[in-house]
Amino acid sequence: MRGTVADLLTIPHVRAVNCDAIRGRVLRRIVTDSRDLRKGDVFVAFRGARVDAHDLVPDVCARGARVCVVENRWYRKHASAYPDLPLLVVKDTVEAYGAIAQFHRRQFDIPLLAITGSNGKTSTKEMIGAVLKTKYNVLLNAGNYNNQIGLPATLLRVTDRHDLIVTEMGTNQPGDIPYLCDIAGPTHGLITNIGRAHMEKLLSREGIAAEKGALYASLPKGGVALINADEPLLRARVPRGRTRVSYGTTARSDVRIVDVRLDRKGKAIVKLTADRFVRRPITLRLQSLGRHAAYNAAAALAVGFVFGCGVTKMKAALERIRNADKRMQLQDAAGITVINDTYNANPDSVLAAVDLLQQITVQGKRCVVLGDMLELGRISRQEHEAIGAALAAAGIPYVLTFGSRSRAISSAARSVAVVARHFREKQQLLDTLDALLDDGDAVLVKGSRSMHMEDVVGHLLRRNTSEEESR
Known about the structure:
UDP-N-acetylmuramoyl-L-alanine:D-glutamate ligase, Udp-n-acetylmuramoylalanyl-d-glutamate--2,6- Diaminopimelate Ligase, Chain: A, domain 1, Protein-Tyrosine Phosphatase, Chain A, 20 strands, alpha/beta, nine-stranded mixed beta sheet
């Protein structure tokens, strides 16, 4: 981190204890995991659901932490026991962490592109990163580090070597996006889409659009708003004085998706035009799976054009990108094709995954294994029933569900499906899959993050290993 201990005293509502002798000391790193601590680091203590890092503060100081950031309530309780520890005392260490990251980010006058949306944030970010890296040194957030802790962690990695920052922003309640934007100071903003995710607290698609749209509202005058032209709830969210660059299928899109086809393995072949930037049409033969990959690629091209990247290099970069871990991954399990889309689930992403299952070439049966879709609030039952109805309409013959809410899926699919069964125990689900699946079959596995549907994929892949060893 760039700064001194004295700079940390500028964050709101901080009180220094035993810091007079180190005010001028240059900061090295800000760490939140005591296992990563090096001498001279600043340690921020978070209260977790299972571990309270405040309990580690005395040991961390003994191991050479320059100063520890702790909360008022811990200090009041332990001040007499540890009178000599160098501390910065704050009301909330998560908020203090964000303020430290905000201070650090403001030391670098470089563009920051923030990405939010209901679906496709990580895949779009990876494509954008690949495009921008053809010309710039880019800092991307790792994995899905997109919340009140992950975003600051990304910003604290910025150095003089970076030309650009690209980071996701996630939300599941009102106020998250404005808070993250205040920390990050985006100069460019992209909202992938407005879907039916996190409805429990955001209540409606309009509520989601209002929350996500705060990204556009946070952009400075002259900032760039990248807009999915096919999403009507976004068009009016961009304030005056911001540059608009659009992508989508509509005729007026700056980067227009003209045609999308999937090959026999589900890989997207996308034809686009971008008359605002180049004269010739662009054809992309993506490694990424599913029709929705066309939107991710179009968004990446739009960003690349804004930053002056060359078409030839952008095309090559996009055609190398593969689906991120647990996101529409095609895997082989002893002759069974597995679509591993287990990272998360909402109604729109489930339908996109089912579309991919229908499009790939399959010699045997098509099977869907779905866990609960969570955080849908009052519309949970109707959305699960709607997925079941969609599976029935698509003629999916084998539907297995797991959890509590997903029973409505298998019940609604039962009118058409050859097998439609619900399970409360995952082992029973796995045993049924073992008996059901044969060589040449294809199975889609998906569910919300906390359903841990990757367990199902892992079981199928271990079956692959076991069968190979037995030969």
